Amino acid sequence: VQLQASGGGLVQAGGSLRLSCAASGRTFSNYYVGWFRQAPGKRREFVARIRWSNGSNYADSVKGRFTISRDNAKNTVYLQMNSLKPEDTAVYYCAASLDYGFAGGYWGQGTQVTVSS
């Protein structure tokens, strides 16, 4: 099982990016798929979560700015990030698990997001 994250880059404050997390090796029809981020010197933090069948939730810091969505046919989850702020700068990771808290789940490699002021 592999999760491939992509779409990071350098953007100015107020700009947008869309991250993708492509899953291969199995179908994640019953899995939670989520995005986490880790900034330098900080702990990894939850960003957003979507259940493959329905339902999503977000960290308070990104509510109203980020949207998580899925394309079942492509086995891919997206994170649309709008109104980016410098404090959104981090390495973003996607994860998939049967557990709501992502215990024992699969993790992709990170993709760097840098927001300049």
Description:
The protein is mainly beta and 117 residues long. Helix content is 0%, strand content 53%. It is built from no helices and eleven strands. The radius of gyration is 13 Å and the shape is globular. The mean pLDDT is 93.
Detail the topology: elements first, then pairings.
Blueprint: E1 2-6, E2 9-12, E3 17-24, E4 32-38, E5 45-51, E6 56-58, E7 66-71, E8 76-81, E9 90-97, E10 106-107, E11 111-116
Compact summary:
This protein is mainly beta. It contains no helices and 11 strands.
Shape: globular
Largest sheet: 7 strands, mixed
Content of β-strand: over 45%
Could you state the order of secondary-structure elements as H and E?
A: EEEEEEEEEEE
Class by SSE composition: mainly beta
Query: Rg from C-alpha positions?
Result: 13 Å
Mean pLDDT across all amino acids: 93
Terminal Cα separation, in Å?
A: 37 Å
Number of helices: 0
* Strand element count: 11
Keywords:
mainly beta; seven-stranded mixed beta sheet; four-stranded antiparallel beta sheet; 53% strand
